[in-house]
Amino acid sequence: MTLRFLRGGVIAASLCCLASPALAGVDDPSMAVIVYGDAVEKGDAAALSSLYAEDAVVWTSSGQTLEGREAIRAGNAASFAAASGKIEFESIHSDMSDTKGAMRWNWTLTLTPKDGSAPGVMKGRSMMAWTKGKDGWEISSEAHFVLP
């Protein structure tokens, strides 16, 4: 079985920059790597999905389309139930205006299946569109790709 974390196993939350779990967004998109990574390591699908706009769309490397924050949360919760993860980021680039922007990063995700099978490592890239709303910066769309 192949396990894939939706956000590339990404980043989770810096308490100083992540909005309340009931809200969404971060004060500064550059903090998303911290938020994403921490959420993946803790298996916290709610914290991870808080980075996304309510109507966000995610295109996964397995070909799924997840529409809406709740679908993103549920997809990550299923991944976290099957395996624990640790993610590292590199080559982080962003181009932001006052209200919109784009970000990309490369990631390495180490997955440890909860069934006791051997850990695995995946490498990939993610590209995200960001929008600044009333709750801060939120990911409005994302596509991620697993590298060969």
Radius of gyration based on Cα positions: 14 Å
Shape, principal axes of CA atoms: globular
For the biggest sheet, the summary is: 6 strands, mixed
Tell me roughly what share of residues is in helical segments.
10-25%
Distance between the termini: 17 Å
How many strands appear in the DSSP assignment? 7
pLDDT averaged over residues: 85
CATH architectural label = Roll
CATH fold assignment: Nuclear Transport Factor 2, Chain: A
| Unreliable stretches covering 5 or more consecutive residues | 1-23
Question: Could you walk me through the main structural features you see in this protein, from its secondary elements to its overall organization?
Answer:
This protein is α+β, with helices and mostly antiparallel strands and 148 residues long. It has one domain (11-146): Nuclear Transport Factor 2, Chain: A (Roll). Helix content is 20%, strand content 45%. The protein contains three helices and seven strands, in the order βααββαββββ. The chain has helices spanning 32-42, 45-49, 69-82, and strands at residues 11-12, 52-59, 65-67, 83-96, 100-113, 120-133, 136-146. The protein has a six-stranded mixed β-sheet, with helices on one face. Strand 6 (120-133) and strand 7 form a beta hairpin. The two termini are 17 Å apart.
